[in-house]
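Question: does this match?
>
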Amino acid sequence: MGFQRDGDSHRLALGEVKSSSEAKSPPQVMSGRSGGLTHQIDNLASNLGTICQLLKWLLPRVKQTVHEPAFNAACTRFFNSERRDLALFGILVRDQEVRESDLQTRGQQLADRLQAPTHCHLIALYLPWPIAQLPQAIGQGGAA
C-alpha cells in the first residue's frame, strides 16, 4: 500500500504478491476463489471495507511526515471518483520459464471488470533460481 505520483497529485497504490513454483500455466495462485491473485486484486478494487482497513493502517505511518500531503491527495482523489481512482498492482513471482499465459487470461478478465480511472498493472517476475532460495538471495544482496 502506498501512493503513485500522477502529475501534480498522487493516487492510492494497492497491490498483492503471489509466488509459485507450479509448472502449470497459469499457476493456481492466479485463480483461487479466495486466495487467488485475480480475486484479491478485484477485492482491492471493490471492497470498501478492505480499503478502509488499509487506510487505517497507513494513516498513523504518514501522519506528520513528508508523506501526509500525498496521503491526503490520494484519499481525496479516491473518494471523489466514486472509489475508482487508484492504481492496482498484482505481482507474480515464478521460478519457471517465461510464459505469457501466466497473466494473459486473468489480466483480460480484470480489464473487463475494472472501470476507469482505475489502473491495474500485472507484473510477472521470473527468477533464475528456485523461489525457496529467494530469502537467502535477498539477504546476500541479490544474485550478482
The beta strands are 2-6, 9-20, 86-94, 119-126.
